[in-house]
Amino acid sequence: MPGRLLTPSPNWYCSRCSDTSPRGILGFGAKNSIFLLEVSPGQPLILGELAGHTERVTGFTFCQHPGLVDICASTSDDGTIKVWDIQTKTVLQEHSAHQSPITAVHWSPLKKELVVSGDEKGIVICWWYNRNDTHHFFPEPRTIFCLSCSPHNEDQVAVGYKDGMIVIIDINRKGEVIHRLRGHDGEIHFLSWCPQLCEPQFLSDATSDTLGLNGELMTEDTAKDCFLASGSRDQTIRIWNTTKGKGVITLKLPSLKRRGGGTDAGIKERIWLTVHWSRSCPTQLFSSCFGGELLLWDLTKTGKQKWTLLGSSSEGQNHSRIVFNLSSVSLQDNCELLLSTSMDRDVKCWDLNTLDCCWTQPTLGGFVYSLAFSPVNIGSLAIGVGDSMIRVWDTLSLQRAYDIKTLWQGIKSKVTALCWHPTKESSLAFGTEDGKVGIYEIYSNKPPQISSSYHRKTVYALAWGPPLPPMATGGDGDGPGVSLYSCAGEGIILQHNPWKLTADAQDINRLIRDTNGIKHKLPGRSELNWKPDGKILAIGNDDGSIEIFQAPHLKLLCTIQTHHKLVNAIRWHHPHGTQPELSSLIASGSNNAIIYVHNLKTVLESPPDSPTTVTEPYRTLPGHTAKITSLAWSPHHDGRLVSACYDGTAQVWDILKEEPLSNYRGHIGRLLGVQWSPVDPNCVWTGGDDFTVRQWEVSKQEHTRPPKGKKSIELEKKRPNCAKPKSKKARKRTEKGSVGQDGEETRENSTQSVVGSRNSSADQAEEEEEEDSRDETEMAKLSNGTSRTPVSLNEPRALENTERVLPNSLHTNLSQTPQGKPDRLKDERRRERAEVAMKKKKGRSILPLSTINDHRSKEELLSDCVNLANILYSKESESQSRPGSGAEIQLGLYADRPALYRMFKEEGQNHLEAGHSEVCYQLMLWKGDIGGALEMATERGELNDALVAMAPMAGYTVWVRTVEAFSKQLCFQEQYVKAATYLLYIHKVYEAVKLLQSHQLFREAIAIAKARLQPDDPLLKELYTNCAGVMEKDGHYTIAAKCYLTARSPYDAAKILARKGDIPSLRAAATVASIVGEQELSSLFSSRCSLDLLAQRDWQAAQDVLRPQEGLLGHRLVLCTYELLYRYLADGNLTLWKSMNTPCYHDWTLQSDKPLIRSVIAIWQSEFGITPANTERLKTGHQQLRMTEHPAASPNTPPRLLMLYLAHDLSVAIACSLLSDWAQMVTALLSAVHRCVNAGDFTLMQEVSKITLSEGEDFTSDLEAKLTGSDQVGLAALRSLCAFHCYGQLYQLWWGLAADHSGMSAGRRQADTEEGLQVDGTLGSLDQPVAAPSDLGSTAEGGQSAARNLPSGCALLLSPEHAKLQALHRQMADIQQAVTGLVSQHQRRLAGPEETPEGGPHLDQEAEPEPTEDPTPNHHGSEPPLSKETSSMTTLMGQLRDVTQQQSELPETVKLHPFPDVVESSLVVLSISSLVPSIVPSEIRNQAATLVQTYGTARPYQRAAQRILPGTA
After folding, report:
1. Which H or E run includes 528?
2. What is the pLDDT of residue 234?
């Protein structure tokens, strides 16, 4: 079922955020969009999405009028109300008249153009959208929570408020309040009108115990009245008679027992009470309850229990959390359905005839971080979501399109990684944002097993693979057959034992170090992927490198150095394709938006003794404009890849052709995961930060490549769910939060973080957003309001600043001030300042209590004298008075020392209570109690420099203890440097350094350590290493490199320097690596730097970079050949690629006027010492050249790389010629020519063939003689090379003759000719002759003076053996295409069994394959064409065996090397013969005609043959 979609969850805590249309369409607001579902009793169908709001949707309502049922309205926190047409999914009209957040909306059921809305300030706006007219009403100064238009009176609107008030207003009378309905104690969640007018007594039987609003019994009336139901947070439902303005019934929610026991009475649960009146029966009312249950209230039933529980027939039907919205729809078959949305993120449909749940539509409440298809239970898709849950979707279920099981137990954090067990269909491993790794048994109700080893940061990758030492293998039954591997943000990979997750997980870095003898720092791990056979492990790193390890001991085979940023995704090609060699392909994506594919066949089949470095990719796939997040190979195709990217698109690539095929742009956010359907070759699944999972078809996308130039800011504009700019307070909270995978940025800036804090509930998110908005408002007020700093008008600069900000009236007053007045003001202010200076501020009294008592009345002072006399001279009064305390505190100065101490104590206590503790310490110091003062200050955390300075007077022990306490106090005050300095006072150097290190003050810590510790102290190395790690994360690579150098880790220093990837950094990294003895690393960086300089056409600088590297002699030779080849082609006006930089050639490129190959040999001898006499150096260069392998070219290969590959092939050929290895020389030359053919550049092929065979007779004349009889393989290569040369000459002759005959200008159809070379190996433009390319049109310009003879090697070109081989290849391709069609047809029948005939399809039955482009032609005359009658699987396999048998009968030398298309060449010969018969000998013409008739049965050949040879069938 293509096009399926998992939507975001309906928004919470909105009074009306979902509604149904009379046509049976459910719409609900989810995040910033409205999603539409077609409702039926069977299963829902998602119709699409209304996207246009920039913030959360808060309300949604359909128009219920006939003819307008496809019109709806929505409200949002962005302040707008939009009217939509759901057929076209466009906005018809909108307004933003509300100045406060909109909280309620309803479409009038009687006025078809009227939409009524309310906001938090109490404003009600009536909007006639057809004429865009709005009327404002302000019935009550309260916050509106909900409103509902009357279905019986077009002017009445019921409004519910947050404080429990309900009012009925008349919009025709300027919003006049008709009734105020009081009774609820909490906010009104929903209002629902009775759909019919009813007689007042229809509820009389149920109101025997219920009074009206004012305590009066209802009176009967024969007139029919309007009734309104309200649900409130006070847990009651009230029925109101709005005609009389009275309450009729009060219904209290019952306490229902939940599964597993009742609720705790001590906990008041958050409730949302929504109500909905039945459309068909006015005595029935539906409502929500405490825990997600739905109740049907029978308003005519007597007794206490008036309710019936929906879904009581079986367990699991009800929602598990509170319900927010209810709406219903009546279908044509007299079936009424009720739709409900809930906090449990499910949308449920209820059949009101049976009160059972018809279906459940799951939704998603977070970012979709991970997608994974089960390898065992095909079609089972696991989805990791940011709402702390896992969804397992049976995508092949025949009963339900959305058969989804939700797993939530034991997770409690965002699910960021998933991986199915390779053989157990029920085992699913998961990783979370908080570093948790667990295994779920999805068919069990038990909670998951959780590994006891947690990661410190977010888990980004999981993989099952063979156990590695020291874990026991499963061979003897002592251990698991596979282990679980997890990679997280801290940069390590852990191996977990799935049989014993309680055991400690193993860090595989230890095994890597021990096996490979690595001493330097290992890079941070960011991704891993096992090859399907379990023998090879690929690990991606945060520095952009990818390391390939061989199990089980993880021997390092090679390192891929193409990415220069953090690697996010690695995927091995599947092993079950038609081309087994493709299983060695590995695709990778990183933060730099380019996908690279590498072919590791050579490394895997012949593992090297020492690790090698791969710098050239097999395929390069540019196009995305942001980081690559996920990759997936198609299991149905060879070399087909899909990528997910932060640019919001998913891209399908053809790897073999190196071209984009299809681009999907259905998401409105960043993509985080992608999976190819395991059953449908045309379907792909993607998930992203728009809270959706989408299924889409590759063949139905209108775009083929990603959008160009889409930067991150444009993506944010496309994403309406991005949050507002955060306030300073919020930014600080974010900075202290978790860090993203790349260590430099968080993964989300919208409502929910990609790897940030958990968003557990909608109201929590709303509170955070409100807090941020308040912070922003306060900041705006501070920035825009009046400055609190007074402006001095006396200073000229201040006056200038004032003129900019003061109003015009004040400018006038200032300009009209007399000159004398400012002078007088200055004099007065000078005098005031002088007076203030004279009046010095009096210090605080040390003894305030005694001072106050010494300023009492005269009588009391005289009494003090008498008391003092008694104390000092009368022994009888000593026991009766206590001087220095209480009322006699002032006498402490005059009595004995104990009295003075008592006075000090009370004075000190008074100072402490007043907050002047420093005075209390002074009193204690006066008393001489230094230890007591220090102890009190230590306990209170109020030590200061003065107190610490006095500490030595109390003794050494007290001083040390005080300094330690003061250091801790300074740490609490975040004065870490000062704290460390005080620790140095007491000779605690290590503690001081550790303190600074723990707070990342590395510069100060290193300074102290180097000054006070020994040079070989281990702490110094630890400091430098930690500092380097922090600087590396912050992007300060040069500082990090210095630290690594000082810490004796030069390898890491060089790698950090190269991290930035620019030319100066690479050059510095290469130099550093060379100095410290890391020659292999230095060679790698030098090579990368030279390639970057090559892109700027700076050959001099490239050679200078490589000159110190003796191990890169071969690379220098290639660059020399490259420079000469580029100069040669540029002089011939053939420039394949250009650069903004001016070419910087060596002088020796200007001096040579010899043929190209001889020029290369001469410069090699003079500049590089490569001569036949210097055998050792020649062999060294040759060996280095042979060690480098380049991928095959394609039409999408960049010209710069194509030229590099050609230069390498020519260099290998020249080196072989100097070593007299003629066979290898010819093979290398043939490789260069054939590379041009694969790239689709016919002009370049002609030039290269001229270089190889036409320049220098001494170089090529005796090749055949040297190869004859000794090397049949070399002779075959030479014949192929000569054939390609003749192929180019043949076309040159044809173009010239055609131009003479038709008068065409040279170069008219070059593009058609070159394009024709790439269509299945045939020339698509053979229907008529074409003109020569303009840059090679010298033959045409020569007229009759040019050579008009057939090329000498034409007989060699028309090879029957090669023609037969090529025909067999084409026939095999047709057979394979027919087999693919049969398999696809079989899979489609399995996916749609309702269309399958009885018994099911069988591959051996006669079945018509999918029609191909050309089902009839056959490329070999002895074999019949494929037809409907002979195209069963059995017949096709038989034909395949016959073709394979015929191929095996051909000589091996024919199959070894590429060869030009013989049939195509024969057609060209026949065309030349038709133009000028005398040029072509009869035997050549007859041979060409025979070849065309025998092997030219393909349609392009037949068309050309019919034109050239009339009468040819």
Report:
1. strand 525-530
2. 92
What are 11's two structure tokens?
């928004």
Tokens found for residue 1420: 């070999």
- Which residues of 214-312 form beta strands (DSSP E)? 227-232, 236-241, 246-252, 275-277, 284-288, 294-298, 307-309
Cβ(392)–Cβ(442) below 8 Å: yes
Q: Is the dihedral of CA 285, 289, 294, 296 positive or negative?
A: negative
Cβ count near 205 (within 10 Å): 11
Q: Answer for the pair 12, 34: CB distance below 8 angstroms, yes or no.
A: no
Q: What is the distance between the terminal CA atoms of the chain, rounded to a whole angstrom?
A: 46
Residue type, 466: P
Tokens standing for 1034? Answer: 């912050």
d(CA 918, CA 900): 19
Q: Is 37 helix (H, G, I), strand (E, B) or coil?
A: strand
Beta strand 493-496 with 483-488: parallel, antiparallel or unpaired? antiparallel
Report how far Cα 1391 is from the mean position of its chain's Cα atoms: 32
Q: In what order do the strands lie in the sheet containing 483-488? A: 459-465, 483-488, 493-496, 506-507
Handedness of CA 1263, 1268, 1273, 1277 (dihedral sign): positive
Q: Residue 1371 is encoded by which pair of tokens?
A: 């026939």
Short-list 1275, 1321, 1281, CA closest to 1451: 1275
- Helix, coil or strand: residue 696: strand
Instruction: For residues 1319 and 1329, give the distance between their C-alpha atoms in angstroms, rounded to a whole number.
Output: 17
DSSP 599-639: E-HHHHHS--SS-EEE-S-SEEE----S-EEEEEE-SSSSS
Q: How far is CA 1363 from CA 972, 1313, 1357, 1450, 1493, in A?
A: 86, 21, 10, 11, 11
pLDDT of residue 779: 36
pLDDT of residue 427: 94
Q: What is the pLDDT of residue 481?
A: 87
- Provide the token pair at 598: 């590498």
* The two structure tokens encoding residue 1023: 């400091």
189 within 8 A of 231, measured Cβ to Cβ: yes
Tens of pLDDT, residue by residue over 1120-1152, are 999 988 888 888 777 777 777 888 888 887 766
Q: Are 675 and 381 within 8 A, CB to CB?
A: yes
Q: Is 547 helix (H, G, I), strand (E, B) or coil?
A: strand
> Is residue 1257 helix, strand or coil?
helix
Residue with tokens 């023998």: 535
Count Cβ atoms below 10 Å from residue 1305 Cβ, excluding itself: 12
CA distances in angstroms from 550 to 515, 530, 1405, listed in the order given = 11, 10, 45
Residue 1049: both structure tokens together? 């880790």
pLDDT-flagged residues of the chain (< 70):
1-2, 202-222, 257-269, 472-479, 709-843, 875-880, 1151-1153, 1254-1262, 1268-1270, 1302-1348, 1391-1431, 1510-1513
Q: Which run of H or E residues covers position 27?
A: strand 25-30
Q: Reply yes or no: is the peptide bond before residue 608 cis, omega within 30 of 0.
A: no
Which ranges of 439-567 would DSSP assign to H, the alpha helix?
508-516
| Cβ atoms < 10 Å from Cβ of 9 | 24
What whole-number distance in Å separates Cα of residue 547 and Cα of residue 556? Answer: 7
User: By CB neighbour count within 10 A (0-12 exposed, 13-18 middle, 19+ buried), where does 1372 fall?
Assistant: middle
CA distances from 1327 to 487, 1467, 1486, 1487, 1510 (A): 59, 10, 20, 20, 13
pTM across the whole model: 0.75
DSSP designation for 1141: S
**pLDDT at residue 579, as a whole number:** 86
* Structure confidence at residue 830 (pLDDT): 60
Buried b (16+ CB within 10 A) or exposed e, 250-270: ebebbebeeeeeeeeeeeeee
Q: In this structure, is the dihedral angle defined by the CA atoms of residues 775, 778, 780 and 783, taken in order, positive or negative?
A: negative
What pLDDT is recorded for position 1345? 36
CA distance 892 to 851: 11
User: According to the 3-state scheme, what is the secondary structure of 541-601?
Assistant: ECCCCEEEEECCCCEEEEEECCCCCCEEEEEECCCCCCCHHHHHEEEEEECCCCEEEEECH
